Amino acid sequence: SNDHIDGNVRRYGKQAIAMAADRLQSGGLVAVPTETVYGLAADSTNAAAIADIYRTKGRPDFNPLIVHVPDMGSASELGIFNDLAATLAHKFWPGPLTLVVPKTADCRVVPAVTAGLDTIALRCPAHPVMQELLKATQLFLAAPSANKSGGISPTRAAHVENSLGSATPMILDGGSCESGVESTIVAIRGDNYEILRPGPVTAERLCESIGRPAIINQSPSIEAPGQLASHYAPSKPVRLNAETADHDEYHIGFGPISGHSCLSKNADLAEAASNLFATMHVADADDRPRIAVAPIPETGMGIAINDRLTRAAT
Ligand code: TXA
Ligand code: MG
């Protein structure tokens, strides 16, 4: 077997998948790799398992979870897809796009998953480990990012353990996450759509495939509480748009600004996104008491990066 066992961590292999599937089917939690960040997964139809997700993360009960599905067929058991939603699903699934759609009448997920809302957030992940797990379990897996609520999202197995500590469940280790920032969340509003969280599927690509831009949030409520101002926060102050750093600052660089570590020397925004959270974890653990971050262009993936950085700095 190519399974490697080290504490909670099970390196991806046939036996590890079978063990993870077994735990999920008996109401346990498993930390899983996705193409965006690691998720803390549980059976979305099991009330005790879902309560365990909220407890483990210290997540407020008004902040709903994303449900992961293997394909469009399963998604339509849980959510109602109009033409616009179906177009986006066909174009971007499997992949880092979450769609918020009305729940079906016989939607089987427990109310705590959607925090009592009549909509549900659905995502079909591209990561092969998640795909295998969804098929092996035949479950719809609720999975928020596998970190303590408000903390930095994990893009490696070690980040999960650092954040959840003694509450860490079994981790399926899939190495580093490719995208590095959480999925783009799009709410379907009839014939219009709204971007609730910028992510790897950029506003430009959404606009291209729909033929019109997203509408701007008319009710800036906490419908997506992950959108609360302070989030993804390290334990120390963060200063943005820093061309240079003070001696007591850990400097995160970009492009020509090298800093203590550079998100992307070539100023490649996709590379910067995939390095973002791992670099924030390093900066947080550094001896210097403050963090400074070089300017990141507000285009393409830069919008998602700046969104996370702004919340980290709040
Ligand atoms: O990339 C991702 O989306 C990762 C991986 C693990 O799939 N998951 C993730 O989950 O980022 P989480 O819990 O950290 O973020 C879920 C976001 C929250 O901001 C939540 O408020 C929003 O989704 N959300 C969930 N259900 C919603 C709903 N019905 N309406 C609006 N927002 C919703
Ligand atoms: Mg999160």
TrEMBL record:
UniProt keyword Oxidoreductase, yes or no: no
Domain spans labelled YrdC-like: 14-201
Enzyme class of the recorded protein, top EC level: transferase
Catalytic activity: L-threonine + hydrogencarbonate + ATP = L-threonylcarbamoyladenylate + diphosphate + H2O
Compartment(s) of residence: Cytoplasm
UniProt keyword annotations, A-Z: ATP-binding, Cytoplasm, Nucleotide-binding, Nucleotidyltransferase, Transferase, tRNA processing
EC number, UniProt record: 2.7.7.87
Keyword Mitochondrion: no
Pfam families: Sua5_C (PF03481), Sua5_yciO_yrdC (PF01300)
Domain of life: Bacteria
The protein's role, per its UniProt record: Required for the formation of a threonylcarbamoyl group on adenosine at position 37 (t(6)A37) in tRNAs that read codons beginning with adenine.
Family (UniProt): Belongs to the SUA5 family.
Protein known as: Threonylcarbamoyl-AMP synthase
